UniProtKB/TrEMBL annotation:
Signal peptide: none
Top-level taxon of the source organism: Eukaryota
GO molecular function: DNA binding
Region Disordered: start-end pairs: 1-39
One cellular component (GO) term of this entry: nucleus
Lineage: Eukaryota, Fungi, Dikarya, Ascomycota, Pezizomycotina
Name recorded for this polypeptide: HTH CENPB-type domain-containing protein
The species this protein was found in: Fusarium vanettenii (strain ATCC MYA-4622 / CBS 123669 / FGSC 9596 / NRRL 45880 / 77-13-4)
Keyword annotations of the record: DNA-binding
Amino acid sequence: MTLVERSVNITPRKSGPKKKPLSHRKYTPPKPLQRRENTYSPRKKVEVLMFLEHHRIYDPDHYFSVNGYRHPLAREASIQFLIPEPTIYRWKRDKEAVLDIKKRSYSPHWPDLEEELFRRFLKARDKKLIVTTGWFRRQAQIIWEDKYPQSMKVFTFSNGWWLGFKRRRGIVKRRITKESSRRPEEYKAVTNNFLCFIRRVSNNTNTLQLRHNQSPKMTINYILDSPVRRFEKKWTLNIDETPIPFGYLDGSTWELRGAKTVAGKTDRSGWSKRQATLIMYIFADGSFRLKPKIIFHGTAGPTGRIFADEGHLYAPDVTVAYNETAYNNEDLFYDWIKDELADVQAKTRDFLLVMDVATFHKTDKVTDQLRQQKVTRALIPPGCTGQLQPLDVSVNRPLKDLLREETLIYMMNKEAQGQTEWSVKDKRIMTTWVVSRAIQRLAQRPEMIAKSFISCGISVKPDGSQDHLIHIKDIDEIDFTGWETAEEIIVKEEEVVNALTDFEELMLTGDEDNTPEDLYIGLMQLKKEQLKTMAKGLGLLVGGNKDDIVRRLMKRYTDGTTAEAPITVEEEPESCIVVVP
């Protein structure tokens, strides 16, 4: 049977307000009637039932009295309203019919579609699979194409149908894990200094004056000339590392209302933990001129056994590296600067690289190579990446959603082809294709990426004409006083860190994207003596190897006993970390 396409411009009829139960209605004591009524309006029936529900009569000797008061009897209501007692008994018995508060039945337009979709949903949740809105959309389209192949354009997964389907089936969204935090006031000065430094190095006029050992002056000619941007947006780069798993159990899933336990399941234990590191490179104009890099566990490089065995199966839009920890390090970062960054950076004289203060980002070897290639480095202060790093502000959240969705699509396609078991090799290959497709979809939103650089104050015009576009969380106005002489400062004094947004910062009550795996990464990056100092400050045992200490700290930080306590990290001296409970 061919269905007729419905117009999307027809406004659906809205239902009236939901009827309230008696216990939620406002009661006003009625006055006794002077004459008998033979017919009774719905309003009068409700008035009588309200009297029976809310009115109280002082009768301390009655069996059902509470604190000396009881509900009125039907006989007393009959006297009050001059209504026959059997009639009141009948109204009381059929109260729901009188009040019309029974749930309305609804016949969906496509019951077969909804029944099959709900069946698949229950089956997916029985397997502890994470169910997203995208999953519902894809499954609904597959079912529709199977049941109504001649009416492909009729069903559009509209928001109205989706809301109605969830309401009819009792489906609600439940979060598996979620944490949030607020940025402390102490970061305002650090943020202002960073943005002042960005303004100074981005200012062409100021740069030329300093080259000639002249002091920059804010003259009327300087203001009217509106200094030229030194770093073009296409040569302003932000990089960041983020852990990625082989299976996604973080975030939320659709579940039946009232479910006490919300669980998830992966193909193999540990695959929902960090299995690789993804390094992202975004430019201020919203483009992707550098391929993302994935670092897997392994001892072989591009010429080794792993790459030789499966490298030809990887997606061509990503680069792959291997080491024992699957983390970025000084050697990998140094090679990236010489080989990959050099190819892009060689096309311009002025290049700005914005990144966090991970240890391997600021070593002498890396610093000398950046200076040799004439790359200007801007290090985001510790604990501020969630406010000043474009990737953390606007990109990582949609990127993770895309990675999760593309992972599900990839696995569904493979399972449709008959694959039921997954090896580590299969997962590595899958990860390269998932990242490639997620980046391709993310590249379709260049305006979002460009806007994140502006809102962080990195790519705004250096003449101050775009300062109103800067939006830093918890900072109403940026103070650019003294920007002409601002220097790059890596914060050395003790400062509060309450979000792990890079490998140098520890998370306790971090941003909502952070997970215990991020905390584990931060702890493993520290030296054993630093971990012992932290454990001692928390009153924990300090004996055993590094893994033992990390395990104790992880248990302390994730069992909820220190949910409001900040972690204080002292960058210098390097061997000292102080924890303030």
